[in-house]
Amino acid sequence: xxxxxxxxxxxxxxxxxxxxxxxxxxxxxxxxxxxxxxxxxxxxxxxxxxxxxxxxxxxxxxxxxxxxxxxxxxxxxxxxxxxxxxxxxxxxxxxxxxxxxxxxxxxxxxxxxxxxxxxxxxxxxxxxxxxxxxxxxxxxxxxxxxxxxxxxxxxxxxxxxxxxxxxxxxxxxxxxxxxxxxxxxxxxxxxxxxxxxxxxxxxxxxxxxxxxxxxxxxxxxxxxxxxxxxxxxxxxxxxxxxxxxxxxxxxxxxxxxxxxxxxxxxxxxxxxxxxxxxxxxxxxxxxxxxxxxxxxxxxxxxxxxxxxxxxxxxxxxxxxxxxxxxxxxxxxxxxxxxxxxxxxxxxxxxxxxxxxxxxxxxxxxxxxx
Length: 369
Ligand code: NAD
Hints:
Elements: E1 3-8, H1 14-27, E2 32-36, H2 41-47, H3 53-62, E3 64-67, H4 81-88, E4 93-99, E5 112-118, E6 128-130, E7 138-140, H5 146-162, E8 168-172, H6 180-193, E9 200-204, H7 205-214, E10 221-224, H8 226-239, E11 249-251, E12 256-258, H9 277-289, H10 293-309, H11 332-342
Helix pairs in contact: 1-9, 1-11, 5-6, 7-8, 9-10, 10-11
Nicotinamide-adenine-dinucleotide binds at residues 13, 17, 69-72, 82, 243-244, 259, 262-265, 267, 274-275, 278, 316.
């Protein structure tokens, strides 16, 4: 019997990139039994709610999901499906690896970072209101608890230990946010003391943004609160080649949902233009979670070789200035087919060549950390 996985196609480019990911997952030869459920705009049309109970039940039952992005309209309307899903299912750890692939699409070919973001509280807790009747002032409450801070910091150190990573950096703003920031900082320090084998340090969020765009290779695992993590993971995606190649995973104690960092990119919806790699690398992460390590290695290698070859890549990987050799862009489905074709024939045991990209910055010994 195959792995039963909840599949949420999502909005905008979601259906295109999730069918690309499904094609590649099936090319591994592993059997999947997809439990397809709708959330977002399709669900509103069908049942009047963007996050039907059936979606939550499916994830609880299967304990694993592959998800496309879901649109959240700015301002009024429904609450974010993404935030609700994370809070309702207590998917507290959002893990977003940023790895440069073959040095393409980036000026930072050495990028290899993981952002571990607390995903259930902070400024996304949903505790907000208008202060007065004419909506001239508003408040959003930044909820930080010791329990959630402890568990996300523990999660980051466990991940660092398991994956043999170099260090864990906490990112906060404890100098200004004297309660919430300090609480997170204290939790980090106390958890770090229990992992003496893993170096730990701290950065203020503003300094961290500057550090990351100067020399990302100084960093490895980054653990932070919800809003800072959301912003930093897009920044890190940019360092590693862009949103088109940045996968992500949400973990609870017994559930896991795999979704790309990017959103529904409505302007590209239905055009077969979006980069499928982020969603395909979600399949890689999902296979690792399922213990299918060899298949995961094959998927990563097939993505790497397709990007390095640059014969069949989408527009974001074909832009002049960020690539070693500008090429005519291919479609989302063509790139997915090329990756799927390679999955059974690549040799995942060969060492990956060191990436080189144009415009890579030279080391800056004067950089203050
Ligand atoms: P976005 O990530 O959808 O798009 C930003 C830009 O990044 C796009 O215009 C495009 O240029 C590029 N891009 C994104 N994905 C790409 C891909 N696969 N291939 C090539 N280029 C890609 O961000 P946004 O425009 O801020 O958000 C659009 C909607 O998505 C909003 O409603 C937002 O709330 C939602 N969103 C959902 C999730 C999620 O479901 N987890 C995450 C982020 C944003």
